[in-house]
Design brief:
Helix content of chain A: 25-40%
Largest interface: A-B, 32 and 24 residues
Strand content of chain B: under 5%
Strand order of the largest sheet of chain A: 8-9-10-3-11-12
Structural class of chain B: mainly alpha
Low-confidence stretches of chain B: none
Shape of chain B: elongated
Shape of chain A: globular
Number of strands of chain A: 12
Oligomer: heterodimer
Chain lengths: ~260, ~220
């Protein structure tokens, strides 16, 4: 196999919330251009795992490596090893790792185009002209050029999520994380968002997607991971995991989805 | 009651009342602006990570919220200058007392306004790589301040009422000027009725303005959720 450094590597990620052990040691490697889909029942830790990648949740143990470089440094304290990441480094990591949220989280006091310009101007320090051009490019990419001057409250859920995708893309990230991007949408609006995501995947964007949309996983994923009780329970190609799951838990989970 | 009203007796003193009104406006205006600026600062301190900042801020707020404004006024006029070995005009003392009082109140407003912003907004900002001050200035405060406008305008009206307390330390504001007029005309009924009516007109029009601003904010919900 190729020996290229993975864009993103997770090593032994653990996370506990108030005594509840959510992630019990996750290892993961993602290569440039790959689309990895993470599936699993609610409470299996898939969103937490995603949020540990850009440190919206701080992993209790383990390492995250971006292009082979470990994020933060491990400090040996009284209560064992601890990962310390400085503000500056966090910011650096997050501008290279884009994120799309379940509830869009657009900035309601800004128009669509202002939402997309915000990161490039206030974080990347681009000039307004450059940021504006970049914002329009990305709004066009998600098919919303005509909505540039609308406030989020005037947009449908599907449109809001596409603006949120454009906002993340405008940072020109190395990796994009999608946290159940269609779960909050009315069924008839899911398609337009998945379409944009498929285009991105085809264009070669590196993506980690937490979703219940098996159609998307089948069509776009290079690799599917089934999380169960905080561990990778089964993984492989979409055909292997979704068509011929080897393990009973995976089968039960997929059967449950069919009945939805 | 058989009383012969005679407003003619205070006719000569309109300019005295006018001067008082100007001082009332100055006192309220300066205290509001200074109080808001200081309140933002104290409110931010309450969000600090270190207890070295959060504790003094909390104590400061409780001290000013839990003592009568009149006591604060008297303290700043009679006690504070002695404490720091200086002299201070009554107006200055009143500005200090009312500014600090307003800052404690608005610090809590800023804190509440900021806390009312959905965690998703913080996360979206952080996910773009924004750091504390930028996130606060660009994302959180613009939304929080908009929510704070109705209680803040209400506070401005309360503050204007409070300025009348400054008459007790001889600040020449509207009520104090009324007292002066009464001292020479011996017409308390006419004098204090006029003073009351001026306050009424002033505060009522202020209230109407606030209502309009509030309705406007509610209606032009370009980004209200």
């Amino acid at each position: 196999m190729e020996s290229v450094t993975p864009v993103l590597t997770l090593e032994g990620i653990h996370k506990t919330f108030g005594g509840h052990h959510v992630l019990k040691g996750i290892d993961l490697e993602i290569r440039t251009g790959q689309t990895v889909v993470i599936i699993g029942a609610s409470g299996s830790g898939k969103s937490t795992l995603l949020r540990c990648i850009n440190f919206l949740e701080h992993p209790d143990a383990g390492r995250v490596l971006l292009a082979g470089e470990p994020i933060g440094r491990t400090v040996r304290g009284r209560s064992g090893e601890r990962l310390v990441v400085h503000e500056r480094e966090l910011s650096e990591v997050r501008r290279r790792v884009g994120m799309v949220f379940q509830h869009f989280n657009l900035f309601p006091h800004m128009t669509a185009v202002q939402n997309v310009m915000e990161g490039p101007t206030s974080v990347l320090r681009l000039s307004r002209e450059e940021a504006h051009a970049r914002a329009h490019e990305n709004l066009a990419k998600v098919g919303l050029s005509d909505k540039a001057d609308q406030y989020p409250s005037r947009l449908s859920g599907g449109q809001q999520q596409r603006v949120a995708i454009a906002r993340a893309l405008a940072m020109q990230p190395d990796v994009m994380l999608f946290d159940e991007p269609t779960s909050a949408l009315d069924p008839e609006l899911v398609g337009e968002v998945l379409l944009v995501m498929r285009d991105l995947s085809v264009e070669g964007m590196t993506m980690v997607v937490v979703t219940h949309e098996m159609g998307f996983a089948f069509a776009a994923a290079d690799h599917v991971i089934f999380l169960h009780e905080g561990l990778v329970h089964e993984e492989g190609s979409p055909e292997a995991v979704l068509r011929e799951p080897q393990r009973e838990r995976t089968r039960t989970f997929l059967r449950g989805l069919e009945h939805l | 009651m058989d009383y012969a009203w005679d407003f003619g007796a205070i006719n000569r003193y309109w300019s005295v009342l006018w001067n008082g009104l100007v001082v009332t406006f100055q006192l309220a205006g300066i205290s509001l602006l200074a109080g808001l600026a200081l309140g933002l600062f104290v409110g931010m301190m309450r969000f600090a990570k270190s207890p070295v900042l959060t504790w003094p801020a909390a104590v400061y707020i409780e001290v000013f919220r839990n003592s009568p404004v009149l006591v604060q006024l008297v303290w700043f006029y009679y006690a504070f200058p002695v404490l720091i070995d200086t002299t201070m005009s009554a107006f200055m003392a009143a500005v200090l007392a009312l500014s600090f009082n307003t800052s404690a109140f608005s610090a809590e407003l800023f804190r509440g306004g900021i806390q009312s912003i959905d965690t998703g907004q913080w996360e979206a900002g952080r996910a773009l790589g924004m750091r504390g001050p930028t996130l606060m200035r660009r994302i959180i405060l613009p939304q929080a301040i908009r929510r704070m406008i109705p209680p803040l305008t209400g506070r401005a009206i309360e503050l204007t009422k409070m300025t009348a307390l400054a008459s007790t330390i001889a600040v020449p504001e509207l009520l104090y000027q009324g007292k002066l007029i009464n001292a020479v005309t011996f017409r308390p009924i006419e004098t204090y009725t006029v003073v009351a009516v001026i306050y009424l007109v002033l505060l009522w029009s202020g209230t109407l303005l606030v209502d309009r601003v509030e309705r406007r904010l509610g209606r032009s919900d370009a980004w209200n959720r």
